[in-house]
Design a protein that fits this description.
Rossmann fold, Beta-Lactamase, 23 helices, 8-stranded mixed β-sheet, Arc Repressor Mutant, subunit A, alpha/beta
Length: 551
């Protein structure tokens, strides 16, 4: 299995980041080498019924694990994960007044180059900079530079760097970026078109400029501005632009969970805690949602209004090892052990007649733990995009390669699974949001198509950071659960069971799910055009099914 050594120097700038990303991608591709994995799958599916096949399997597995050890050593030698693309202009000014290391944003906005003299750009700052360098002034100078795109002034503030008199100037406002557009849609209910206009306003463009750039009439832009003023409670155009700049700054860097939803922390004993997020009607009919291993634990922002309209209280605990919820050893061996955590949640919130919804890996916990709780606290159970108990690797034969590799690793080599999890996370961080869909959903056309929606892609991208907030154990343990035959932990159900599944789900093909539905005597509803990310791409179908089950 080929290995690509890292470059001798630490990567820097755009070229270095690309080389770093390429290296991570090479390690990832080598670890999921198709020839080795195809052979391992064939051997595993044969049942390893004789000494020859068992020896062959062990030899290939050992070779994979040998490669993993070398690859992990390479990863350990690499610098930390590159930061998200910079969204504020920044550059250094040496003690001699020369500009050094302007980032890509500064180059684009101000046409700066290494070696330019700051005095040519802002001669009035010379005295103030000298006082600040010498420590005779505690106030960092503010530099005003005109943006090339709008002709408006951008403000940059200075900060001392080291002992050599160098100063680092950083923009006080962020340039507009896709995550900011998604954030204003989520926070204020702006439409995608309104978010684009706000991005132009926040960048210093006038309504007339925005109209010309978007090919719309000025009156259309002004009407959108009036609507945005109402939605954001801004007092005027200047304040609206300020809102946009504030959101652009606050939504930069690795995304964090949205802070606008009610959240609480429940103590579980033995020092463990459960973090819980809510959406919808605070006093509505309770629905507990057990998330999967992608997408986070929140439905898309537009679903909140629909939840309120339908009178649903959507309660989404972070499952063990996800977000900031604690894990516990017993759950590694028995998904029904989660019943105690659910019982605590139900008691603490004073709930009864709960609809329990489990998505992806959360479906196994919903079914096993829900069966342990039974009627009274639980009124019905709905499994969405569920992965049935895995009796053999052949069950994943039709799945995209990355899912088949993870299933095999979960069954045969924990070191390999840990490596795939680690390097996959670093690959996502290195390549960023734009490469997320192909990395996660390659081979799943319906999910790739769904990710063309910027708001959905942002939710899934943000969800990744929720799942790895406390490390990779959540993903690793979910893979182990999905790849196991967890049906031995099931108890007879005394509440209705329903299944909701995408007709175009490539990860769990419909024939496999139909067989599971017959086995469980469950009612199956198929959503046309939906893939595995059904709760996020087709959330209206999910809410309709939840309400229909209650009628």
């Amino acid at each position: 299995m080929a290995e690509r050594p890292p470059d001798s120097g630490a990567p820097g700038g755009q070229n270095g980041s690309a080389e770093w990303s390429s290296l991570i991608g090479s390690l990832y591709e080598a670890a999921v080498d198709p020839t080795a994995f195809t052979r391992l799958l064939d051997l595993a599916e044969s049942g390893l019924s004789d000494d020859t096949t068992r020896r062959s399997f062990e030899e290939i597995r050992s070779e994979c694990e040998r490669h993993v050890k070398k690859a992990e050593a390479l990863l350990a030698a690499l610098p930390g994960t590159p930061m998200a693309p910079e969204i504020r202009p920044a550059f250094t000014v040496s003690a001699r007044g020369r500009i050094e290391d302007p980032n890509s944003v500064a180059v684009a906005l101000f046409a700066l180059s290494d070696g330019d003299r700051l005095a040519h750009l802002a001669p009035e700052l010379d005295l103030e900079l000298a006082r600040y360098r010498a420590g005779r002034s505690a106030h960092a100078p503010v530099l005003r530079l005109l943006r090339r795109d709008t002709g408006k002034a951008a403000l940059l503030v200075a900060e001392r760097r080291g002992q050599d008199g160098a100063l680092r100037f950083t923009g006080m406002d962020a340039v507009w970026h896709p995550r900011a557009g998604a954030a204003v849609q989520a926070l204020y209910g702006l439409t995608p078109s309104e978010a684009e206009v706000l991005g132009l306003l926040a960048s210093g463009h006038s309504p007339q400029d925005a109209a010309a750039r978007r090919g719309r009439s000025v009156e259309t832009i002004r009407q959108q501005v009036r609507t945005m003023l109402s939605k954001t409670d801004a007092a005027g155009l200047a304040e609206l632009a300020h809102v946009g700049r504030a959101v652009a700054l606050s939504s930069a860097g690795p995304p964090a969970a949205a802070a606008d939803a009610p959240q609480r922390v429940l103590p579980l004993g033995n020092g463990r805690v459960m973090h819980v997020t809510e959406q919808g009607a605070p006093h509505g009919r309770p629905v507990i949602y057990l998330h999967g291993c992608l997408g986070g634990n929140r439905l898309p922002a537009p679903a909140d209004a629909e939840l309120r309209a339908r009178g649903l209280r959507w309660i989404a605990p972070a499952r063990p090892w996800h977000g900031e919820s604690s894990g516990f050893e017993a759950l590694l061996h028995d998904p029904s052990a989660y019943a105690d955590d659910l019982a605590t949640l139900i008691a603490e919130l004073g709930l009864s007649d709960v609809t329990l919804v489990g998505y992806d890996a959360g479906a196994a916990l919903a079914l096993c733990a829900g069966a342990a709780l039974q009627a009274g606290s639980i009124r019905d159970i709905l499994l969405v995009s569920a992965t049935p108990p895995m009796r053999g690797l052949r069950d994943f034969a039709a799945a995209p390669r990355q899912q088949a590799c993870l299933a095999l690793a979960a069954r045969s080599s924990l070191p390999l699974l840990r490596f795939l999890s680690l390097v996959g996370d670093r690959k996502l961080r290195a390549e960023g949001r734009a490469a997320f869909a192909e990395t996660v959903f390659g081979g799943s056309p319906a999910d790739l198509a769904a990710c063309r929606d910027e708001a959905l892609l942002e939710l899934l991208w943000t969800g990744h950071f929720f799942h790895v907030a406390s490390g990779n154990d959540g993903f690793i343990n979910d893979c182990r659960l999905i790849a196991s035959d967890w049906s031995r932990h099931l108890r007879p159900l005394s509440v209705p069971l329903g299944l909701l599944h995408g007709a175009a789900d490539a990860i769990v093909p419909l024939p496999w799910l139909r067989a599971f539905a017959r086995e469980c005597d469950a009612n199956l509803q198929v959503v046309e055009g939906a893939g595995h990310a059904l709760p996020y791409s087709h959330w209206t179908a999910l809410l309709s099914r939840v309400c229909a089950a209650a009628d």
